Amino acid sequence: MTDQKQAGDIDDDLVESERNSDPLGGLLGRALSDVPVPQGSLLPGIQHRIRVRTKGRYFRDRWNVVRNPVTLLLMTALLVLVLAAAIFLVMEALLSEPEEQPSGPEMAPSSGSEPAE
Amino acid sequence: MSQGDRDSKMNPRFIERLRRRDEQAFNELVLSYEAQVYRLVWRMLGNREEAEDMTQEVFVQVFRSIESFRGDAKISTWIYRIAMNLTRNRSKYLARRKQNSHAELDGAQPEEAHNEAQGVTAGETKRPDWDAMGNQAERIVLECLNLMEDEFREILILRDVEALSYEEVAAITGLPSGTVKSRLHRARTLLKSQVEVRLGGQIS
After folding, report:
1. CA A33 to chain CA centroid, nearest Å
2. Mind listing the pLDDT tens digit of every residue in chain A (117 residues)?
3. CA–CA separation, A93 vs A98, rounded Å?
4. pLDDT surpasses 60 at B117
């Protein structure tokens, strides 16, 4: 007999069954009443899963490392460019520094009073 | 916070915030229902780690599919329905995995094991937390519950342990209310007879 066929004439049996099953219901309730406590709230774990699965679109935090790969690539490229520019500027400044002008009487600009040979 | 308080907080404006993927609203939803969902899932799976993992999956699924919540039932009922569906699948997966590992240990071909596991029910799933619980009678009840078909066990848990109304059980399981009543009746009769056989007498 299917559930649907039984459903129509079940109410009386059911009332009887519920009345008779009180001790069983109590036993069942007590048996499953001692639910072990989870280790803290599950919220951080849920947020983490959503963050990972939405590639950081939701529940992004300050220390989040999960990003859209395209964004990550662009940011890396930009960082490399900035670094390269900085190195170039520093190197150029070092290389183009004018040599120190020698000073002293022997290097004094020559005048017209040099002895003729 | 009582169930009524929780459900009354979930007004249309709040649901609209959830639909817009408002993270703060979602956090509130999780904090309001995580304990209930965890309890239900643990009662179905009998394993704390699995229950924690599954509860997280339930809320990820809630976040993903909140648009499909039409608002014609309580949001708790809708969440319970998701929890029940995911738990049913996990339970079957665990039963298949257990059967496969047994088959491999017995030297059977994996293919054969897979075929054998096709019709496996979650009633054969191991529920480690239940092994060390309660007094003798309660343990026997849990053992008998563990051996029941999913369809019977989940109805018993929803109605007799979670104390949900027939309408809520019907909405969660997707069954007509009459079917819920008849299935519950059969589940109770079955469980009672099995427990009495194991106890060697009537339950008092």
Report:
1. 39
2. 445 445 445 565 665 556 555 688 888 888 898 888 888 899 999 999 999 999 888 998 655 555 567 778 899 999 999 999 999 999 998 888 766 666 655 555 555 555 544
3. 10
4. no
Contacts of A63 by beta carbon, 8 Å cutoff, 6+ apart: none
- Preferred mutation among A16, A30, A32, A37 to probe B, highest tally of B CBs within 10 A: A32
Model pLDDT, residue A31: 87
Give the global pTM. 0.70
Q: Which residue has the tokens 């963050």?
A: A51
Element (H, E) at B21: none
SS3 A28: helix
Rounded Cα distance, B134 and A23, in Å: 15
Quote the tokens at residue B34: 């995580």
Q: Which of A29, A22, A98, A111 is nearest to B145 (CA)?
A: A29
SS3 of A65, please?
coil
Tell me if residue A30 falls in helix, strand or coil. Answer: helix
CB-based contact, B156 to chain A, within 8 Å: yes
Query: Between A43-53 and B23-45, two packed helices, what is the crossing angle to 10 degrees?
Result: 110
